[in-house]
Specification:
Length: about 300
């Protein structure tokens, strides 16, 4: 992902830093897990209680940081959106999205209203509409929201999820690799409950901090055999990096139950073999994780 500094080829230098408690459980005790980023200037610590990896200290999360990090994306071009439709990769992505939508339908039991949070170019919303759903996108970047509206004709609202009002309720919420970018995940989980229709579910995708790949890279860094390849303009936008042992208790503490969970590779069309079944569904060692969750009945 790019930032507004990419076009100017400038280095991102945080003006102010803040120390924060664990975003999942509020614990203040932690220990250093790894240094990362340009010149390794950022730090992931691990919560002593719930074991979440999170940035501490981190650049102050304010309007300036949000605009720098999210207003401009590499993919925020009309050329990229056209490529989504017409290139082989675009067709693969559409098939992957269609598979996710089928999984959502298997839990909801019908097609209805779908809310995508962090809708980027709007391509998932397009796939949802192609499969009979009524999607609405939310995107913090105004320029991305405008492109999504223009290119796919899907209703996309620019702004903060916490501040946007909805007249409708949603049978499904799709939140893919977004929640780790926000400082108040517990508030977002409460917001999910507010806007879900009865029987609705959330499809939540996140990075997997405990994947084989991440563990191996951390080992190489500890042995000083590897340094991050981190462009100077890049912002440290993952405020935390969840793993199953921290995320599942967090989901439960927010009043949700996990219906299904698995890891997955960067591109996957839903087809499985024995290796995929073992690695991603049993051991869940892949680089990314997907959770289908539903509010627990009171």
């Amino acid at each position: 992902m790019a930032t507004t500094l990419t076009l100017e080829n400038k280095e991102y230098v945080p003006e102010n830093w803040e120390r924060v408690p664990c975003p999942f459980c509020g614990e203040t005790e932690s220990y250093v897990l790894e240094r990362f980023g340009f010149e390794h200037r950022y730090t992931y610590v691990r919560c002593s209680r719930c074991k979440l990896a999170y940035q501490n200290p981190r650049p102050v999360y304010n309007d300036d940081f949000i605009e720098t990090a999210y207003e401009v994306y590499d993919s925020a071009t009309e050329a990229f959106q056209k490529a989504e439709n017409w290139t082989p990769r675009g067709r693969i992505v559409h098939r992957e999205y269609s598979h996710i939508i089928s999984e959502i339908e298997s839990f909801v039991g019908k097609r209805g209203n779908l809310l995508e949070i962090g809708c980027n170019t709007g391509f998932f919303c397009k796939a949802a509409a192609d499969n009979g759903w009524k999607p609405i996108g939310v995107e913090v970047s105004k320029s991305m929201a405008e492109l999504a509206n223009k290119t796919y004709g899907v209703e996309t609202r620019a702004g903060d999820l916490a501040k946007i009002q909805f007249t409708e309720r949603f049978d499904a919420i799709y939140c893919s690799h977004v929640i780790e970018h926000i400082p108040n995940p517990r508030a977002w989980m409460s917001r999910f409950r507010e806007v879900l229709a009865p029987g609705g579910i959330v499809c939540l995708s996140v990075p997997n901090m405990q994947s084989i790949d991440r563990k191996f890279k951390r080992l190489l860094k500890r042995l000083k055999l590897k340094r991050d390849r981190w462009e100077k303009w890049r912002t440290p936008d993952h405020l935390f990096e969840p793993c199953e042992r921290s995320l599942v208790p967090f989901i439960d503490s927010c009043g949700f139950e996990v219906l299904r969970r698995y890891s997955y590779p960067s591109e996957w069309n839903g087809l499985t073999d024995l290796w995929h079944e073992l690695f991603h569904f049993k051991l869940r060692w892949g680089a990314k994780s997907r959770y289908y969750i539903r509010p627990r009945k009171k």
